Amino acid sequence: MVQRHRYKYGGDPSQWGELFLPDLPDDGAHRGVVVVIHGGYWRSKYGAELGEPMADDLAAHGMAAWNLEYRRAGNGGGWPQTFTDVLAGIDKLQELAGPHALDLDRVVALGHSAGGHLAVWAAGRDRLPRLGLVGEHSEVGARDDGVRLTGVVSQSGVLNLAEAEKLHLSDGAVANFLGGPSSEIPGRYRYADPMAALPLDIPVYAVHATEDESVPLAMSTSYVEASESGPVPAQLVTVPGDHFGLIDPHAPAYGTCRELVRELMR
């Protein structure tokens, strides 16, 4: 039976996560944690309810899952709040590990759409200081004792912000999220773009739906191509279906994502 526990990691109403736990294994410890990061083009009208079915399904399949909510554009999020929230939400697992017997040696992120962007971005947190952001928000990602992701499954993730801005995806969602066009705030764009943190030294599966009309396949292919010279190149996995089949526990596209998460958890 799946148990659910909700915790806050900050004072804002959107700074919380819900831990979905399966029955404990015989050795008395959960073998890793999956951080579920929902999408919605970073806008406040979409929330953690999108990730709830996946977190519940993962727990039903024996994996501890942390369904993470965060501030989005329109409810106090954007730059830098969304980024600091995601890292703080992942780091909250350090506090929860003892009470819930969580193994933080394996922490895998499963992120859909904009959540895929945030998941892959968070995987590169140790690369951020070298990008040279200066000024009032240079502390974003600066903590060096936080929880490190050991793998990511991106579900039609927005993994190339420069190209997403150029394509004006979802009526200018990137500029809305970051607070302006790249011509005015180039440093912020560079810091926020998962492409800039390459190469990573952990596995990333860029899963993309072949009939996705919300996030172009190029968001995944360009990231995978850019990663090829790194120590652990990202892998492209195409699946049948549309954008939302990736988060439907009954859809084959999501089933592929679950199996990739399970592989990373091993």
Automatic annotation (TrEMBL):
Q: Which residues form a coiled coil?
A: none
| InterPro entries, per database record | AB_hydrolase_fold, BD-FAE-like_dom, GDXG_lipolytic_enzyme
Q: Which residues form the BD-FAE-like domain?
A: 30-222
The molecule here is called: Alpha/beta hydrolase
Superkingdom as given in the UniProt entry: Bacteria
GO molecular-function terms, A-Z? hydrolase activity
What enzyme category does the UniProt record give? hydrolase
Q: Any idea of its EC number?
A: 3.-.-.-
Keywords, A to Z, come to: Hydrolase
